[in-house]
């Protein structure tokens, strides 16, 4: 069911969040794949471990078993899930020694294998899609899931994000962990909170022109009007100091003025797409009533808007 | 077919490959040449079995300050937008959906001093949308060798649900060390040629390039020339093994049947198949069995066009190249001669015409499969231009 232009909707029936604790343990080690996943997963990339653990959480109530394997799908967003492996391969090539690379690990140069592992583990045969737009890929995944369900491509979709530190994160904050939503098509009869998403784009150069900023403002207002069934009491804003992100963030603040408290997420300049999914998944609580909103504005121009609200 | 027909209309094409830049060079290459792969500078010296079908030097130099994959994508994108005759307003409202397996991972190869800022590997759709000034929904799909097939299907969904009227969609791939060296480590590189369905095939050979299309809703395409329609798409996942296809083949069969169902077509309507056909031992045999299951006793009578024998395996761009080839076949009314296998695998009894043959039915079935058992099939239905 799509109620508004450019807005995708779905009902949330489960969540899984696996992220580092705050504060981190003194040795920095917070996830042990042997204790979380059991034996036989040593060769998998870090991001795959996190994703598998999050999926087990989201599927813990056995909801998947109610649907045929061909009716279950997966959409995962990531920016940096396999960049460490790419760096290992690059280094081995430079040193002239690809024989040192494990044939069990090498296939994960293909970033979609991280999500594909979930299909083999849980028998999700409907589809398995990986998306990767900078900083918004997690919400992008939820958006595509919200499109795939009403299009009849499946009845149940795991959608979310997973990340592992990009060794070349530069001045951005590396991310670790995974967050997933388990989604069904929104229908009048379906119980559970509703997630709504919209994607927009602001060509970075347009942020330098009055006409571009005006168009961006319209796009932001339209997206927020679309995903917010009512003005949210609070909105989490993840942006950065780039002209494109600043332009979009200004438009978000203007839309919120007087009705919605904007929480600027600290450390927003991240080398990944996990943080907004973590916020969204954590908003799915038994006491959820009014909408909780998350907005991402990236220097690359990708904008993503999401709310979760009681139905 | 006129552009008042419902569905998703293809109104512009662009291509950059080892055959050159532009759809004219692409078609000429498909009808007159048999390219060969070449060593990859900086890599083959270290990993000797790596070859690739490469874009000729200078063919796609745009001067844009981006990585190679984005430069290739931009070249093809500008061709497609010009071919579609889009106005500035239409470009500004356009969505962009791009498939890529490796993104700009190749930009990190051999670079020991990284930049101060974070350069995300997967940023092709963002950079193409940014450069063209497209404000529409912008999505980067990374389903390995099926990426642009999923991108095309997502673009169809965006149009069907009303999220976009016009979508620039396709795929782009530059050569990166990770996939090429990775395939070498897995023993999956053919040291001579990309030769799908050949009994002597030993793996695949990658190719670089970009293929882009402008697709539009019937309303947006009204009164504009159209190559035809994307009329069906089907998705599935083997959920079997990370790199090997499920020998049962039931999931690629399901994807193809779903695409045919959505296109309101049956096997008897298919005039050509552009297979995934990579040259790897198991995939070609399995795809033959899949096609036997889908096409039934028509298998030996439906011509296949084995595109990767011309341009190599362009990975995330492969399905978009297949649709561009299909649109050009529909426009010219004929299927080019295949590069004939020296010895066709008896386990792959598909029809690979060795001379050009007329396209007798307008619908063309296209398959794309990927690591992770990710399958997508599409139906393209030719029109008149």
UniProtKB/TrEMBL annotation, chain A:
Q: Which InterPro entries match?
A: Beta-ketoacyl_synthase, Ketoacyl_synth_N, Thiolase-like
Q: Which Gene3D superfamilies match?
A: 3.40.47.10
* Sample GO molecular function, one term: 3-oxoacyl-[acyl-carrier-protein] synthase activity
Against SUPFAM superfamilies, the record matches this protein to: Thiolase-like (SSF53901)
| UniProtKB keywords | Transferase
* Beta-ketoacyl synthase-like N-terminal domain location: 47-164
Pfam families for this protein: ketoacyl-synt
Leader sequence range is: none
* GO BP field: fatty acid biosynthetic process
Protein's recorded name: Beta-ketoacyl synthase-like N-terminal domain-containing protein
TrEMBL record, chain B:
Tell me where on the tree of life, at the top rank, the source sits.
Answer: Bacteria
Q: Which intervals hold domain Ketosynthase family 3 (KS3)?
A: 1-382
Q: Which UniProt keywords apply?
A: Acyltransferase, Membrane, Transferase, Transmembrane, Transmembrane helix
- SUPFAM superfamilies (alphabetical): Thiolase-like (SSF53901)
**Pfam families associated with the record:** ketoacyl-synt, Ketoacyl-synt_C
Set out the biological process GO terms recorded for this chain's protein: fatty acid biosynthetic process
Q: Which SMART domains match?
A: PKS_KS (SM00825)
Recorded protein name is Beta-ketoacyl-[acyl-carrier-protein] synthase II
The scientific name of the source species is Streptomyces capoamus
């Amino acid at each position: 069911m799509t109620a508004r232009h450019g807005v995708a909707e779905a009902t949330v029936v489960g969540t899984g969040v696996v992220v580092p604790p705050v504060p981190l343990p003194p040795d920095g080690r917070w996830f042990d794949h042997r204790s979380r996943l059991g034996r036989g997963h040593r060769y998998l990339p870090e991001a795959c471990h996190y994703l598998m653990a999050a999926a087990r959480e989201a599927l813990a109530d056995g909801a998947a078993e109610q649907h045929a394997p061909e009716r279950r799908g997966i959409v995962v967003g990531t920016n940096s899930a396999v960049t460490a492996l790419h760096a290992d391969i690059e280094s081995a090539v430079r040193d002239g020694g690809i024989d040192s690379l494990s044939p069990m690990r090498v296939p994960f140069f293909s970033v979609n294998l991280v999500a594909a592992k979930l299909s083999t583990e849980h028998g999700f045969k409907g589809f398995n899609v990986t998306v990767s737009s900078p900083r918004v890929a997690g919400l992008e995944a939820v958006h595509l899931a919200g499109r795939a369900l009403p299009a009849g491509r499946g009845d149940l979709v795991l959608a979310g994000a997973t990340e592992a530190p990009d060794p070349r994160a530069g001045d951005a904050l590396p991310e670790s962990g995974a967050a997933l939503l388990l989604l069904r098509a929104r229908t009048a009869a379906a119980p559970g909170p509703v997630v709504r998403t919209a994607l927009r784009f602001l060509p970075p150069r347009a942020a330098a022109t009055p006409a571009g900023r005006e168009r961006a403002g319209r796009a932001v207002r339209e997206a927020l009007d679309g995903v917010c069934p009512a003005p949210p009491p609070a909105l989490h804003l993840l942006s950065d100091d780039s002209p494109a992100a600043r332009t979009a963030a200004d438009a978000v603040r203007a839309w919120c003025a007087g009705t919605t408290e904007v929480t600027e997420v600290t450390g927003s300049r991240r080398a990944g797409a996990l943080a907004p999914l973590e916020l969204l998944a954590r908003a799915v609580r038994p006491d959820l009533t009014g909408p909780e909103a998350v907005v991402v504005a990236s220097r690359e121009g990708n904008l993503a808007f999401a709310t979760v609200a009681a139905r | 077919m006129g552009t008042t027909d419902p569905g998703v209309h293809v109104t512009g094409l662009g291509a950059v490959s080892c055959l050159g830049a532009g759809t004219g060079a692409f078609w000429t290459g498909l009808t007159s040449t048999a390219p060969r792969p070449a060593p990859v500078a900086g890599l083959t010296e270290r990993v000797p079995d790596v070859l690739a079908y490469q874009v000729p030097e200078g063919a796609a130099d745009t001067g844009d300050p981006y990585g190679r994959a984005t430069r290739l994508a931009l070249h093809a994108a500008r061709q497609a937008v010009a071919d579609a005759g889009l106005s500035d307003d239409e470009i500004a409202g356009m969505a962009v959906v791009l498939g890529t397996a490796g993104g700009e991972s190749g930009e990190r190869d051999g670079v020991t001093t990284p930049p101060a800022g974070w350069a995300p590997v997967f940023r092709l759709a963002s950079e193409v949308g940014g450069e063209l000034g497209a404000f529409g929904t912008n999505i980067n799909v990374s389903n390995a060798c099926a990426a642009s097939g999923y991108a095309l299907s997502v673009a169809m969904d965006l149009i069907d649900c009303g999220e976009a009227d016009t979508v620039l969609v396709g795929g782009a791939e530059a050569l990166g060390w990770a996939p090429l060296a990775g395939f070498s480590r897995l023993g999956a590189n053919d040291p001579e040629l990309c030769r799908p369905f050949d009994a002597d095939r030993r793996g695949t050979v990658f190719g670089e390039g970009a293929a882009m299309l402008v697709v539009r809703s019937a309303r947006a395409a009204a009164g504009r020339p159209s190559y035809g329609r994307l009329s069906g798409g089907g998705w599935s996942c083997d959920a079997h093994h990370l790199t090997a296809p499920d020998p049962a083949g039931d999931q690629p069969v399901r994807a193809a049947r779903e695409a045919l169902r959505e296109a309101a077509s049956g096997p008897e309507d298919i005039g050509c198949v552009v297979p995934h056909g990579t040259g790897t031992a198991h995939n070609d045999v399995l795809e033959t069995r899949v096609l036997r299951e889908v096409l039934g006793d028509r298998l030996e009578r439906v011509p296949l066009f084995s595109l990767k024998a011309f341009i190599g395996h362009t990975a995330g761009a492969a399905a978009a190249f297949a649709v561009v080839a299909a649109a050009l076949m529909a426009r010219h009314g004929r299927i080019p001669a295949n590069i004939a296998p020296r010895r066709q695998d008896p386990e792959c009894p598909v029809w690979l015409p060795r001379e050009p043959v007329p396209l007798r039915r307008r619908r063309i079935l296209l398959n794309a499969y990927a690591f992770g058992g990710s399958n997508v099939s599409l139906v393209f239905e030719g029109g008149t231009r």
